[in-house]
């Protein structure tokens, strides 16, 4: 990795691409980064909603913030490739990439690419988008890739189940236990941490660093697409949850802080470096995950 920058790092004037910025911690982070002077590229699925959010961010920032909108369905590799191509065409420089979009699906679903949905959205989408934008990130003197992970990764005690990447086994659990979807989500969050560690290893000396974090239990619209039981569960959990603004604090800090310019590949909680699970420290698994992910995004 390159030496610490001569000038203090700040997100002011930097171009930040962020997924999942139309609600929850992504929206809270986008608003705060705009206030701090960042220019934003929002990757979203819904054009109308994204345009509304972009207008809100510009109005609330109180400055001449640039807020671009790129449309992509994170469950479609073709759609992600189209959005990345547009970003590359419109932006001569990308300084920060924030992989924040994520979801949990109660039933096993397959994407248009024939991949299990939670895996595709939570892991393969950021893996693909990062790789598509990587050469542009390297053109900055210093750039950062930040991925939203979760404390929930610790539920994936067996690590990545490489012989069942399309998750036939978890979703065979009795539905009433909701174990399958939860364990699958945990596996994808573990993948986020392993992806960050392997990305950091591959980016040594490049000037690009990789970081991931746990936002904590946050009161958002997450898991509202999975029926009444899921909505009731989330309603109870909201009583013990953080606000999106609190959940976004570490994300904003990772994007804006000068303290981490010499750090790479770490996992953070509440703006502190944290040791993840044993499975998340397995660099052999991280390397294998990278290799199988390359196969799953191969055209």
From TrEMBL:
Taxonomic lineage: Bacteria, Bacillati, Bacillota, Bacilli, Bacillales
EC number(s) on file: 1.-.-.-
MF GO annotations: oxidoreductase activity
Protein name (record): SDR family oxidoreductase
Segments forming a coiled coil: none
Domain of life assignment: Bacteria
Entry keyword set: Oxidoreductase
Transmembrane segments: none
Keyword Oxidoreductase part of the UniProt annotation: yes
Keyword presence, Oxidoreductase: yes
